[in-house]
Predict the structure.
Amino acid sequence: MIDVADEATAQMGAPASPATSNPTVPVAGRASARPATGRSAGRRGSGPFRKGLEITLFVAPALALLGLFVVVPIARAVQISFFKWKGYGDFERFVGLDNYRRVLENPEFIEAFQHNMIIVVASIAIQLPLGLAIALLLNRKMRGQGILRTIIFVPYVLSEVIAGVIWYQMFVPNEGIIDTVLSSVGLSGPKQGFTGSLEWALPAVIAVLTWKYLGMAIILFLAGLQGVPEELYEAAQLDGASWWQIQRRVTIPMLGPTLRTWAFLSMIGSLQLFDMVWVLTGGGPANATSTMATFLVQQGTQRSNYGIASAASVILFIVALVMALLYQRFIMNRDNTATVVRRKKVSR
Amino acid sequence: MARMRRATAGIALATTIALLAACSNGGDSPSGDGTTGGGGDKGEKVTISWWHNSNTGDGKVYYDKVAKDFEAANPGVTVEVSAMQHEDMITKLEAAFQAGDAPDIYMERGGGELRDHVNAGITKDISDAAAETIAKLGGSVAGFQVEGKTYALPFSLGVVGFWYNKALFEQAGISAPPATWDEMYAAIDKLKAAGITPLSVGAGEGWPAAHYWYQFALRQCSQDTLVGALSSYDFSDPCFLRAGESLQELLDAEPFNDGFLSTVAQKGPSSASGMLATGKVAIELQGHWEPGVMQGITDELGEDGIGSNLAWFAFPAVSNGDGDPAAQLGGGDAWAVSKDAPDAAVDFAQYLLSDEIQKGFAELDMGLPTNPTASKYVSDAALASLLEVRDAAPFIQLYFDTAFGKAIGDAMNAKIVDLFAGKASPQDIVDATQAAADAEK
């Protein structure tokens, strides 16, 4: 009788809460690729017209938003990228692909691209083991579990700009809290401060990003851990597996889809990284922490080279798209088959 | 259950309608009534918007009063004042220009920027409408003309030089402000020996660092070379390379505050201006706005600040330069009127340049008045000495980034910051500037 899945069934990996949902609810107008969400073929009585109307009705707001704030700006950026345009007045000077050539030849852009790649790799390399370790610890029954989970998640809730300003103040050379603490134990930071020296600025940004996004990783991993069936633990325990063996042989393999999804989100986030860097270092010192996003803002709003900025944004879009597709194709593809198998098992 | 579905559908429908409504609302903007042209007649209701950057202390109070006085004298006119921090104002203006929604009266800084704005049809030609005021201001409007037409009325024209703390100079045993770079290096050594950081610079924002290179270029290059480079976009003269070498020499002496690469210019006590205001450094290279900026910072901290210990000296002479040591780097701020602004906006811009308003402006040390009748009211000793230097200068070079326009100026600034960071050579600055200039041709 009901053909609409409400939000409660959509929690990732978590068992659907029985109070608000029905495991055999068909989902209208939205694809659900999440494990443990029950789904079966639609079995409505009314005709296809009504169904179409319903779909239109529900999809329309999202489509309108998507069109207005995603499709139109992207199309506009592509258009601007073919012109030499100062930010106001009509598009007059068509330059073809020249803006793209100028971006790809620009050492500042290449530097920014490298920083993005370093951040992509560093984020995953640091946050994956750290987040996993903390999630496994927090998954054990212990006192103050809720409070600990909250504390770990707090940085993620904080607005990026506020977190950036706080860290900026802490990094101030000599006067800032970090230098004060270092000097009180007889150490000293770099002379120019962490965010002011060429070697330290990028590691400092990565450290702040880790602090900021580790909570997100942990929450996702914890959610994934809830989805590991209790029976598997029981069976392993009966077979005499130690805690370590259970984590290595049961938990982590079962967590695979969650880990891969998180790594995907982390990668996309790192490629588009802007606000934290902008507040913390402004891409400086001397472009030592620039990203593709800060490059295009600099070209656009500071130098009024809107054509070049748009070309850079299209390139950023393509880079992110290609990496996302490759990731989906080569790393996430097994999840797609794996979830089908698991889904069958659950909905049986 | 069925009821729930209907409710959800209702919400979705409502969202769609709200969205559509929001979209269609964007069409008729409410600011339309204020900016319909030609509404200068007495009695008719006119709203003019005015953006300025005196957002702290007495300056803000004064400008609010100025707006009120103008409203009282012109019934029916409402002045909508927006006071913003300087960088914020620049960013918002940029966005407003793009949206075609510029404030009626706003700040122009001349040079390449003004050229771009005029070419894009943003700024109003006020040559005739404000002829009287233009005549009174004399030569200082020259920087705000494009092809013989005047587009803005300069209200403050200043030069960039070294602001310093007299008490710290005394403490380090420096008797007189340096007039040459040899003396300057001696002063830097003495300050360091006394445990005082000599200079602060907000290289994190680019332009404060770039001003050093501009100043060295002004000392190294003759006026003809500079004026020529401005029109021909040719930077091949060796004096531009020497400017970078002089700057490199200064950097090698390590006179700057720790962390200068990430230091901001004017915001808060850890900014370059904040350090001078709170006595943490002895000297800072800055424009005429510096006393006001420092006042704002120390007011916020609730401290007394540098007060009467503040003094000023011009950029010292170099030993091997072609430039006139009396030439100064400077620039001004001018009130411009946007293309579609009502006539009342031009009246207001002229009112801002009147003897009375410029007198109050000078008395509060908000800047260096351009109205010749107001010069004598500048009470601050440091600003008065700066005004003397300005009036004695044979040639005032507009800040390079403003003069060249943003595309060249910002590329140039970025490379100068790279030199500060040890990432670029003097030759790299010349090359990058030339490349950016060639791309503009």
Q: What stands out?
A: The first helix of chain B runs from residue 2 to 25. DSSP finds 18 helices and twelve strands in chain B. Chain B has a mean pLDDT of 85.
